[in-house]
Each structure stands twice: as structure tokens, then as C-alpha cells.
Specification:
Blueprint: H1 4-21, E1 27-31, H2 56-59, H3 62-67, H4 69-83, H5 90-102, E2 106-110, H6 116-119, E3 125-127, E4 130-137, E5 143-145, E6 164-168, H7 177-189, E7 192-196, H8 207-214, E8 218-223, E9 235-238, H9 241-250
Parallel strand pairs: 1-2, 1-7, 2-3, 7-8, 8-9
Antiparallel strand pairs: 4-5, 4-6
Helix pairs in contact: 1-9, 5-9, 7-8
The structure holds ligand BJW and zinc ion (ZN).
Length: 252
């Protein structure tokens, strides 16, 4: 881990990444669960990725919710309660600082539903998988922001009494169209694309990496290990985003 050769390799990669990022006036970022790991939130596919023995593909689907809404809600109640206890980490803050530097040229596309980018002060955020602080009525589709306050075990809509669900995107569901379109536009027009803390296996979000390349952007990845995207990036920064991102922004 702390072998000097590794430290040197990361240092050199950080210099290369800074060279790509420094001249860019349009920058897009894609974040995944890894950026929130250092805030204490479990990732989906890591060693702590199972919840009570269930894989995410078994609880984050409309079928699972129809079959066993109590189970699915239990999973989300726990994660909502957990959110009340965690804070953004230096990785989130570094991205907020990068936005300060770039202004309107900066777009943050996040797969995360945890709201920690907002808490760190990022502004131009596209939440392509929804937000866990919001619930959506499964009947009339009304969306309400509930923050992280405790909810009834099975929350029901105040308007139509149908069962409410978390306003997140489950497997097999479409991403919010307008938000997705903005993400595609930002990624196609950016000069530098930063991919942080994602296994890059869930589509269509992972497809943004290909799209960035198609649009001619440089791609920088930050991850503690190689991901499905690593073979196609220009610079891979192997390390925790909470230390790597502040280092990168410092070098600009
Ligand atoms: C660190 C770190 C540190 C750790 N520092 N790094 C076959 C091929 C292609 C696609 C499909 C297919 N079969 C099915 C599909 C479609 C499916 C899909 O992609 N499945 C694949 C798994 C195969 N996709 C969908 O269903 C999507 N919808 C869709 O396709 O709709 C089509 C449609 C069109 C029109 C009408 C109707 C339908 C929807 C996908 C929704 C995903 N939802 C979830 C749950 C959200 C709610 C919730 O949070 O509960 O989103 S699943 C889960 O995975 C969550 C995440 O956003 C997403 C991505 O995970 P992420 O963020 O990458 O996390 P991990 O855990 O995988 O990785 C963490 C990474 O961090 C690791 O690499 C670590 O190394 C790293 N890390 N610590 C830096 N300190
Ligand atoms: Zn309703």
C-alpha cells in the first residue's frame, strides 16, 4: 500500500490528470457509491454490499417492491436513517471547489441518491438515479421531499392513499428523461470527464464514459481499484477519492 513506487505512480498520474483538467473549460463528472464510502456509506458491490443477504438487484426492482414492499421499505428506511448521521467527505468538497473554479462549465452527474453532493455545496447536479430523500406515490405519481425524517413503515399518499415508494430508479425502470438528456449533452460537450467511485457496470449511466470518448473528451478515473471502465480511460488515479480528489484540485 505505502510502497514508494506506488506513491510515485500515483503522483505522476496526478500530474498527468492535472494537465488534462487544467485547460478544460467544460468539465463533466460522473460519481458513484465509492465517493460516499469515506463518509461511511456502504457501496453496492463491495464486500459490505449485501444487505441482509440480498443483492441490490433483488431489492432495487419494481418486482421486489410489488412482491414484498415491507422488505424493500425496510432497506430504504435504514439507508434514510443512516443518512441523518453522515456527512460529505473531502472528495465531495473537492468537486464543489472544482465547480467554483469552472462555474457554468461544470456538470456533476451522480448515480448516488444520498444527497451528499448538495450537502458539500455542489450546485449543478444531475441525479440520474433519483434521490432517497424524496418519495413518489405509486398511484398518482406525486413526488414529495421528506428529507431524512423517519417515515411510517409503509408510507401512503396524502392525496390518493396509494402506497408510496422511494423516488429512486430501480432496475428495469427508465431514468428521469429530462435529467438524462442534460447529462448526455454535458458529457458530449465536455473537454474533460472525471469518473469517480463507480464500478461502471450499471447502464445507461456507465455508457456516459463511452459517450465522453465519442465526443472527444479526455477521461480521468478515480477509484480504489480497477473498474469496468479502467481500460478505456486516459488516466487512472488509483486511490480513495477523499484524498485523490483534493490532491488533484490542489494541482490545478
Ligand atoms: C471507491 C472507494 C473510495 C469504493 N474511493 N472509489 C445487460 C447489459 C446492459 C444493461 C443491462 C443488462 N441487463 C439489464 C440491464 C439494464 C440494467 C443494468 O445496467 N444492469 C446491469 C447490472 C447489468 N439497467 C437498468 O435497469 C436501468 N434502466 C434501464 O436500463 O431502463 C431501460 C428502460 C428504458 C425505457 C423504459 C423502461 C426501461 C436502471 C438502473 C438503475 C440502477 N439503480 C441503482 C439503485 C438506485 C436506488 C438505490 O440507491 O437504492 O443504482 S442499482 C445501484 O447501482 C445504484 C447505483 O447508482 C448503481 C451503480 O453502482 P455504483 O455507484 O457504481 O456502486 P458500486 O458499488 O457498484 O461500485 C462502487 C465503486 O466505488 C467500486 O468500483 C469501488 O472500487 C469504488 N470505491 N471505495 C474511490 N474510497
Ligand atoms: Zn397518490
Amino acid at each position: 500500500m505505502h510502497h514508494p513506487v506506488d506513491a510515485n505512480a500515483l503522483n505522476e498520474a496526478l500530474d498527468q490528470a492535472a494537465e488534462l483538467l487544467r485547460p478544460a473549460r467544460k468539465v463533466a463528472v460522473l460519481t458513484g457509491a465509492g465517493i460516499s464510502a469515506e463518509s461511511g456509506l456502504a457501496t453496492f458491490r463491495g464486500s459490505n454490499g449485501l444487505w441482509e443477504g440480498h443483492r441490490i438487484e433483488e431489492v432495487a426492482t419494481p418486482e421486489a417492491f410489488r412482491r414484498d414492499p415491507v422488505l424493500v421499505w425496510r432497506f430504504y428506511h435504514l439507508r434514510r436513517a443512516n443518512l441523518a448521521t453522515v456527512q460529505p467527505n473531502p472528495g465531495h468538497h473537492a468537486l464543489a471547489a472544482l465547480e467554483q473554479r469552472l462555474g457554468a462549465g461544470f456538470t456533476l452527474v451522480t448515480q448516488n441518491v444520498d444527497g451528499l453532493h448538495q450537502a458539500a455545496g455542489s450546485k449543478n447536479i444531475l441525479e440520474v438515479h433519483g434521490a432517497i430523500r424524496r418519495v413518489k406515490c405509486s398511484g398518482c405519481l406525486r413526488v414529495t421531499d421528506r428529507g431524512v425524517a423517519a417515515l411510517p413503515e409503509m408510507p401512503r399518499c396524502a392525496e390518493c392513499d396509494a402506497l408510496e415508494r422511494p423516488d429512486v430508479v430501480w432496475f428495469g425502470e427508465a431514468l428521469p428523461e429530462a435529467i438524462w438528456e442534460q447529462a448526455v449533452k454535458a458529457v458530449l460537450s465536455c473537454e474533460c470527464f472525471l469518473v469517480v467511485g463507480t464500478s461502471a457496470v450499471v447502464y445507461p449511466a456507465a455508457g456516459l464514459i463511452d459517450l465522453a470518448r465519442t465526443g472527444g473528451s479526455a477521461v480521468i478515473e478515480v477509484n480504489v481499484e480497477r473498474s469496468a471502465a479502467s481500460a478505456q480511460v486516459d488516466v487512472l488515479l488509483l486511490g480513495p477519492s477523499g484524498t485523490v480528489l483534493p490532491e488533484l484540485v490542489k494541482r490545478l
